[in-house]
Design goal:
Layout (H helix, E strand, L loop, with lengths): L34 E13 L5 E11 L7 E7 L12 H12 L3 E5 L10 H27 L6 E11 L1 H11 L12 H7 L17 E5 L2 E2 L12 E6 L9 E4 L6 E5 H10 L4 E6 L11 H18 L38 H8 L1 E4 L6 E16 L5 E15 L6 E9 L4 E8 L1
Parallel strand pairs: 3-4, 3-5, 5-6, 6-8, 8-11
Antiparallel strand pairs: 1-2, 2-4, 7-10, 9-10, 12-13, 13-14, 13-15, 15-16
Helix pairs in contact: 2-3
Length: about 425
Amino acid sequence: MKQIYLLPFLVFCATYSIAQPCLNGRYASEVFPNYTLTSNISYGSNTSFSGSTTNLRLDFYEPTGDVEPNRPLILWVHGGSFLGGSKTDPDMTALSQRFARKGFACASVDYRLGFFPIDSANAVKAVVRAVQDLKAAIRFFYKDKQNNNTYRIDTNHIYIGGSSAGAITSLHVAYLNDECEISGYLSQNAINQLGGLDGNSGNPGYSSSVKGVINMCGALAKYVWLEAGDVPLVSIHGTLDGTVKYNRGIVNPGTALMYLDGSRILHERACAVNVSSDFYTFTGAGHCPYIGNAAYMDTTERFIRDFMVNQLGCNEVPLQIANAPLQQAILYASTYCDGSPANETCIAGVEELMASENAIIYPNPSNGLSIFAAENAVNQLDIYDAMGRKIYSITGLFKEKVLEIENLQKGTYWVRFQLENGTVGVKQWGIQ
């Protein structure tokens, strides 16, 4: 069981940096008047959701005339609900150009798109494919450094980030590091068929480690995957985001898919486990407000710039001071892979946690038939789907109940139960 220590709330959590100065304003301002773009660099290939081979490519941006032998790299990942978008989307090209002129090397990355039918289980598979591809792109630069050194990357300073689906991908690359963490969403057989979390998209045998994450309107499936000792993150999110919620909520890119933990709850979690987290709130703004809006884009660039120069150890005055987060972020009851409770300031009290820990669902995941068993008598049990809809309810005192519900689709469900003494517990149930 992990030992968790509570910290006072801070807009900025503690940041750990290295001693690498921004000489002559490099990394802090646009010291290069131009950038050079190399398009359609192949970094790997893999099989799409439909079974066809997809060639994976990225665009590389660098300062024109730069002679620095070791440059920090930012890999930008586009949005598009894992169904559309590309490395040439305007927000990705704008950020790549702006940061290349500051002296960074930047790569705008394409990844495999598409999933069908559009449901929670297939959405999870789409995220895993994107994670595999981004890891292959990271490995591509590690491989180059050890062989040709064409791109002159400082592999101690590789950062990943993106917008919407690209941010979701980046967050999962950084914080999803154990297959057991997604066992409630996908069966082990499905994970194996996909190629595991690292995948087979290219450049095997090389590292996919990163130094930090840039999260623009993204989310993580479960906040608990962000753990003490993980890499720092910077987040930007609008409070009225209806696609990827600012706090915790159902992701809805046109079709409601599943619950995700947005930037607000990730910042709360990061502060709780002492992971560096810088967070900027766009009050009253919707999804990705910086796309097509110069003022929002300028704020986004400045805030990310402050995060980056801090991570590089530069003594620079911040250009965009963090504002106070809005909405209360409640870390709901959750557990680590070993079953130990992971919430630090959650909605459940001690009694609720004990209730959850003293109940079990097996097999889990299942093919639609499982057994719920509790140590103490239960007087009500409700089951909710990934969109928060109650699909099953039963009352009456019992300690064991067969869960067999007709026409359940693959995905994640939540079993909420109330003990005879009124205590409530929640368990996750996966259908494969």
